[in-house]
Amino acid sequence: MSDYPRMVDIPPKVISLSDNMSTMSSAGWIIDQYRELMEEKSDPRVSDWMLMSSPLATVILCLSYLLIVRVLGPLFMANREPYDLKYPMLAYNLFQTLFNGWIFLGAASFWFGGKYNWICQAVDYSTDPQAISALSLAWWFYFSKFIDFFDSFFFILRKKNDHLSTLHVVHHSTLPLFAWFGPKYAGGGNTSFGGMWNTLVHVAMYTYYFLAACGPQVQKHLWWKKYLTSMQMVQFVVVFCHSIIPLFYSSCGFSKPLSLILMFNGCLYWFLFLNFYRKAYKSKKREKLEKLDQNANRKED
Known about the structure:
Elements: H1 12-40, H2 56-77, H3 86-111, H4 129-147, H5 149-157, H6 166-185, H7 191-212, H8 216-219, H9 225-248, H10 256-300
Helix pairs in contact: 2-5, 2-6, 3-4, 3-7, 4-6, 4-7, 6-10, 7-9, 9-10
């Protein structure tokens, strides 16, 4: 019989040490991959820009938003009367209309100004003023998603908790993280295509909210609210289709992983908005028809 110990005879401490070394090796590999992703594969031009060093700050802000909207906000308002926020809301909605309009015009100057190829456009990672301008717009688009949080905060302070639908909360809590990938890895090119249409929809949306905040005399003329949801859904389809192109048109030079993120983004929100649209408008139409039928039956009786 050999004097060498069999594997089953190895003392538990030796096995534990081996497992620890394996775990440390795996952890080291994960850290190396994360460092490579954050430092080597990212755009060095934004390395010292606010909130761009890592996604941690963005994740914390998104989680804080969820905590406020789902827990702290309702608790704060539980025994309070709704706040009258007419003038703050007018100022906020006007600002959002102008701010999103500014981003849209900036992005449109590339796509409609002949600087970008409508089929597919790679990112210019140089320090050319035009390239920096596109990168800056991508960052401001990302930052605008935090300003959008105030939509929810106004709902809470006005005790309009029924407006905080699953769609609303998921949309607002995830968009900053999706938008973070733009300036971090692809500030310009195809990334700005979706941002351009999104800000245009937001111009229409915040114009509506501004007019609605003016009071009942204006609200009665706002018949086009449901078309805002339709505009959002069309936007997601257009962005999804446009993001497919780099997957097959490899000579374009736009990142395939970023294209997949854009496609996932468009697909996720399209289904969420579709579900909202069905609940918000189809059910109302059905209720209206039922009421008409009941009134007709009563008249016949």
